[in-house]
Design goal:
The protein is of the alpha+beta class and 208 residues long. The chain has one domain: Nucleoside Triphosphate Pyrophosphohydrolase, CATH 3.90.79. One of its GO terms (cellular component) is nucleus.
């Protein structure tokens, strides 16, 4: 019988015991020439590409217009915040992979959907530049269907517990607001995209 995930305890982690991240102290000079210091976290898994990860915007569409343009979002428990988080599918870039190859692979693993081509790949993006050196790319992937939407089986790795959900793009922002009411936390990248989509549509319908 499955159980709800929960935080059992939290303790200090010596840097020497950390497997995936390390802490750095940065010495820098501000515009007035004053020397300052900054503390940040850094991934130890970054490969030769210089890019840590990708977030994936899957564009699900019907070639017969059997359903509105949609996307897939995922729900998973994130121990650092102690809550379920609503996110875009995402993943770390394996050695020798391009961000675009990672996007196709991770989308199928986490959601079961097979992307056919890359619609757009963003410039290098930073995630929380005041806290970490982590960076990423946002990759939009085309997922066409001949007619009606068909769900596919996920290909999760052991220890991954991810729920995939399909949301119509025009309804995404409203759906994320409902998640907040249910106690979920929404990832900032997903929220920003949904808010921008909603605002663009509102401006399109409004005479300025």
């Amino acid at each position: 019988m499955s159980q709800s995930p929960k935080i059992l305890s939290v303790e200090e982690l010596p840097t020497s015991d950390a497997k995936w991240i390390t802490l750095k102290k940065i010495h820098w000079s501000d515009p007035d020439g004053k020397q300052r210091t900054w503390e940040c976290a850094e991934r130890t898994t970054r490969g030769s590409s210089g890019i840590d990860a990708v977030a994936i915007l899957a564009v699900l569409r019907s070639e017969t217009n059997a359903f509105p343009p949609s996307t897939v979002i995922i729900e998973q428990f994130r121990p650092p915040v102690g809550k379920f988080v609503v996110e875009l599918p995402a993943g770390l870039i394996d050695g020798g992979e391009s961000p675009e190859t990672t996007a196709i692979r991770e989308l199928e693993e986490e959601t079961g959907f097979k992307g056919t081509k890359i619609l757009e790949s963003s410039p290098l993006l930073v995630c929380d530049p005041g806290m970490t050196t982590a960076n990423m790319k946002l990759v939009a992937v085309d997922v066409p269907f001949p007619d009606k939407l068909e769900m596919s089986a996920q290909k999760l790795e052991p220890g991954e517990y991810i729920t995939a959900r399909i949301v119509e793009l025009p309804k995404l922002a409203a759906e994320l607001r409902e998640y907040e009411k249910k106690g979920f936390v929404v990832d900032a990248r997903l929220s920003h995209y949904a808010s921008g989509y909603e605002m663009a549509e509102r401006l399109r319908q409004t005479k300025l």
